[in-house]
């Protein structure tokens, strides 16, 4: 079947876009607009020139559409992401263009201006076009394409339901921070990005890498890469992906077994990497900032062949700094990631590789006094050796296939292999500060190798019967992880006589020896059903997971391994009350293996979690502004604690309950004014230890706005400002250490020409002392002092 794509001149001045398969051999003449547009298909089209988007829809669907060429010239389409019939896809592309799709009396499709609306045409003056272009954030071509051309609004989740369902139709709380937000804030790390997600608290670690608590659960939330898990002793490779390689970051709230199997109750983080694009662009980025930070990066994508079926993406980034604010040797990072994609009407195959080299210095921190309280303010020199650091080298291979087996049935296979070497080398505070200002340090040096293989395979069946749209998934996930760890064969401590005096601590030089290793195997099978009838959406699933692991420790007999299974059901309902308002409820269950032994033999039962959530999603101002509210209650049971009678064994206790409220707002308030804001309240109670302090703030929130000046005299200029807040919180378990509420103010100044852009970012504008969440008074991490960075990009 040959695909024909060309323009035909008719006797009228209309131009017709044709993407019709040769039908004569099939004897199925397409005689009306309705016959052509019956079947829904999956579309993944970014914002771009409207005429090109219409052509791509026509090529994929075979729909015949005619229009005046002047109507679409100079217009940009909205992104088309999801499953639509051809007319639905065109209507999506026409959003905010002032045009509408109508059927002619003869049964053909055409375009016409919406009554009372005006469209951008070639007669528009450059000044007027600059004003129109200034409505979205002033970001580079790459960030615009990767965020779908919708500003701060993200329209769908790439991985949660595995169906590309729009977020506005998903009965669950999912936060998505896209490339537009990331670039406008000059975010450098995943912690920077996640400040924009409600209910997420970043907790810097003593060896240079953070962990993330979601909805009150302090167990390190897993960080996935394009829906695939990766593991490490201190951080997954996905958590250290440079932001120039990130198209977006998702936070799926609550138990998420269908996506991440044995994840903590609070939720999971998923990093969406940049993918090949059809429309070519190339971008060079250069940055320079405080502490002699410098970065050079390159991002390039486009089609390789004339049919635009073979596409590529190539991202490379390198940066370094002289030192951090505490005087530790600065970080160094290198990342390179080539990706190839073949995509036609039935096959979508993507092959990717990424190589990451990272060196992270110990973070800025302060310490508590033994008598209570803590060293107030920034410590300006290392509490250890200035070379103390965390290091990682990772290689990742990925392959994704989406193969249409028929009009309604698709096979999807996502596979990944990751090899990671991680090292921790340094001195960490092992005590609080004495009355004489002395501090004891513990030396730690280790190296760990992780080898991870993942495979996700499922069938996706779509149907539309009697007005009920159904999407059914049946699948199997498999992952295998093998690890070995080498530590120094003896521990050592040293004491700093006076933390305010001269400190000279030698680096750790002891050799490493094998200490332990092991392997973990996970197998999950699941069934998911999504039903849409009129205004009602139902999303239900059931998953069974099998978890098998074994450990080998030097000096001990090899373990026989542990095997646990669990079922995790979920149910979500959403009702579209009006085109703008959709309330929803959901119920989810999840599990985590308990790998500890009870007295008398046998493992403790898995930790079981359960969430009830209710919320409302609002699409406001013609879908330019999104508001999401959520109330949740999460509990889990079978928390393991030490057996008070039998040393070395464990018993199960109750668990914990987390309740809270979250609000998120993102989008365009008025032309040129864009916003992303969030607020979260969380109350976390530990039934098994009610007197132990919870080391998280009750209240967190942020707001970031950008404004693009719209007058011709200031065209291309913009300004951004944001405030990031948290309430006071306890550090440690006793209540002797409390840090006050925190407020950080950031500023951004932008200038964008046709191919060039500049962004001056100032973080912690007022140079406040910023304290982060911590479980120990011997390590109270602090945010950076005032930081400046100038970033320039050139697009070609």
From TrEMBL:
SUPFAM superfamilies (UniProt xref): Porins
Secretin/TonB short N-terminal domain mapped to chain residues: 63-114
Signal peptide: none
One cellular-component annotation, GO: cell outer membrane
Molecular function as annotated in GO: siderophore uptake transmembrane transporter activity; signaling receptor activity
PROSITE patterns linked to this entry: TONB_DEPENDENT_REC_3
Top-level lineage group: Bacteria
One Pfam family cited in the UniProt record for this chain: Plug
Any one of the GO BP annotations: siderophore transport
Keywords: Cell outer membrane, Ion transport, Iron, Iron transport, Membrane, Receptor, Signal, TonB box, Transmembrane, Transmembrane beta strand, Transport
Protein's cellular compartments: Cell outer membrane
Family: Belongs to the TonB-dependent receptor family.
NCBIfam families hit by this protein: TonB-siderophor
Protein name per Swiss-Prot or TrEMBL: TonB-dependent ferric siderophore receptor protein
């Amino acid at each position: 079947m040959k695909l024909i794509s060309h323009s035909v001149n008719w006797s009228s001045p209309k131009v017709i876009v044709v993407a019709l398969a040769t039908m004569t051999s099939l004897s199925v003449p397409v005689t009306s607009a309705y016959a052509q547009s019956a079947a829904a298909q999956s579309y993944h089209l970014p914002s771009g020139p409207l005429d090109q988007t219409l052509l791509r829809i026509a090529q994929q669907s075979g729909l015949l559409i005619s229009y005046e060429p002047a109507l679409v010239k100079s217009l940009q389409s909205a992104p088309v992401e999801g499953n639509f019939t051809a007319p639905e896809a065109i209507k999506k592309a026409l959003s905010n263009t002032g045009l509408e799709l109508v059927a002619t009396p003869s049964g053909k499709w055409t375009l016409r201006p919406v009554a009372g609306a005006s469209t951008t045409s070639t007669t528009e003056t450059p000044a007027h076009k600059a004003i129109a272009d200034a409505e979205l954030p002033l970001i580079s071509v790459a960030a615009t394409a990767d965020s779908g051309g919708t500003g701060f609004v993200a329209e769908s989740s790439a991985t949660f339901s595995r169906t590309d369902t729009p977020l506005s139709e998903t009965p669950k709380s999912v936060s998505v921070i896209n490339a537009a937000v990331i670039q406008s804030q000059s975010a450098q790390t995943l912690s920077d990005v996640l400040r924009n997600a409600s209910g997420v608290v970043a907790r810097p670690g003593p060896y240079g890498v953070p962990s993330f608590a979601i909805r009150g659960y302090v167990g390190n939330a897993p960080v996935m890469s394009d829906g695939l898990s990766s593991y490490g002793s201190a951080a997954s490779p996905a958590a250290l992906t440079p932001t120039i390689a990130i198209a977006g970051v998702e936070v799926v709230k609550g138990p998420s077994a269908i996506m991440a199997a044995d994840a903590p109750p609070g939720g999971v983080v998923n990093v969406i990497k940049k993918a090949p694009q059809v429309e070519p662009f190339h971008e060079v980025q250069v940055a320079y900032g405080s502490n002699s930070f410098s970065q050079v990066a390159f991002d390039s994508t486009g089609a390789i062949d004339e049919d635009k079926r073979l596409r590529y993406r190539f991202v490379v980034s390198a940066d370094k700094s002289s030192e951090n604010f505490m005087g530790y040797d600065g970080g160094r990072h290198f990342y390179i990631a080539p990706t190839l994609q073949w995509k036609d009407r039935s096959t979508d195959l993507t092959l990717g590789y990424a190589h990451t080299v990272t060196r992270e210095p110990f973070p800025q921190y302060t310490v508590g006094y033994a008598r209570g309280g803590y060293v107030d303010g920034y410590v300006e020199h290392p509490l250890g050796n200035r070379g103390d650091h965390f290091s990682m080298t990772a290689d990742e291979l990925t392959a994704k296939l989406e193969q249409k087996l028929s009009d309604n049935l698709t096979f999807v296979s996502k596979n990944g292999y990751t090899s990671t070497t991680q090292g921790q080398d340094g001195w960490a505070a092992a005590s609080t500060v004495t009355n004489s200002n002395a501090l004891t340090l513990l030396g730690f040096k280790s190296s760990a190798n992780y080898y991870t293989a993942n495979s996700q395979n499922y069938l996706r069946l779509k149907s539309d019967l009697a007005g009920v749209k159904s999407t059914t998934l049946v699948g199997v996930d498999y992952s295998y992880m093998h690890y070995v760890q080498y530590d120094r064969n003896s521990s050592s401590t040293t004491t700093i006589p006076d933390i305010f005096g001269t400190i000279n601590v030698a680096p750790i030089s002891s050799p490493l020896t094998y200490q332990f290793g092991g392997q973990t195997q996970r197998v999950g099978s699941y069934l998911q059903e999504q039903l849409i009838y009129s205004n009602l959406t139902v999303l239900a699933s059931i998953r069974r997971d099998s978890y098998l692991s074994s450990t080998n420790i030097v000096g001990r007999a090899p373990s026989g391994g542990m095997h646990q299974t669990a079922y995790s059901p979920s149910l979500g309902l959403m009702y579209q009350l009006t085109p703008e308002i959709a309330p929803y409820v959901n119920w989810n269950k999840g599990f985590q293996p308990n790998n500890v032994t009870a007295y008398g033999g046998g493992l403790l039962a898995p930790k079981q979690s359960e969430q009830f959530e209710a919320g409302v999603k609002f699409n406001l101002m013609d879908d330019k502004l999104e508001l999401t509210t959520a109330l949740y209650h999460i509990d889990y049971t079978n928390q393991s604690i030490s057996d008070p009678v039998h040393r070395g064994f464990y018993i199960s206790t109750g668990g914990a309950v987390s309740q809270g409220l979250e609000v998120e707002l993102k989008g365009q308030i008025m032309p040129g004014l864009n916003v992303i804001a969030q607020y979260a309240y969380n109350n976390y109670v530990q039934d098994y230890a009610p007197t132990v302090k919870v080391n998280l703030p009750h209240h967190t929130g942020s707001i970031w706005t950008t404004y693009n000046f719209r007058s011709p005299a200031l065209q291309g200029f913009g300004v951004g400002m944001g405030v990031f807040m948290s309430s006071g919180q306890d550090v440690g378990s006793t209540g002797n250490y409390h840090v006050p509420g925190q407020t950080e103010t950031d500023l951004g100044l932008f200038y964008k020409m046709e191919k060039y852009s500049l962004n001056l970012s100032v973080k912690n504008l007022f140079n406040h002392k910023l304290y982060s969440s911590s479980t120990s008074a011997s390590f109270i991490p602090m945010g950076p002092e005032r930081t400046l960075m100038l970033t320039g990009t050139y697009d070609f």
